[in-house]
Design brief:
Elements lengths: L2 H7 L3 H9 L4 E2 H11 L7 H14 L2 E6 L7 E6 L1 H31 L4
Antiparallel strand pairs: 1-3, 2-3
């Protein structure tokens, strides 16, 4: 896989993370598990998730806190912020535009080249 394609594969990772966080706070391993189960064709790993979370935190789209009272190892949890909801809407608009363009491509391809 080319470097460009690999970068494109992770382009929407922030959108998926923010969308999951609309359901409530989560920690990195939970986010990774959800992404793997809900989007089986979306290949990611923990390093990508944690880099994306750090980027989102730096932007103010998420905030983090530590949970230390569970008896297990401390876990860093993340929650969506108001700025994160704005960013999520921007992601939604970007994805809708891309989907429209891709649908046009598929239709034009079927008409010009034929078949699937």
């Amino acid at each position: 896989m080319s470097t460009t394609r690999r970068g494109q594969q992770y382009r929407h990772t922030p959108a998926f993370i923010l969308l999951i966080l609309t359901e409530g706070d989560a920690y990195g391993a939970t986010l990774l598990s959800r992404l793997e189960s809900e989007l089986p064709a979306f290949k990611t790993d923990s390093a990508i998730i944690y880099r994306t979370l750090q980027m989102l935190e730096d932007e103010g789209a998420v905030e983090s806190y530590w949970e230390t009272e569970t008896g297990g190892p401390p876990r860093k949890w993340y929650r969506l912020t108001p700025a994160g909801r704005v960013r999520l809407k921007e992601c939604r608009d970007d994805i809708a535009e891309r989907v429209s363009n891709l649908q046009h491509f598929l239709q034009a391809y079927a008409e010009r080249v034929g078949g699937q």
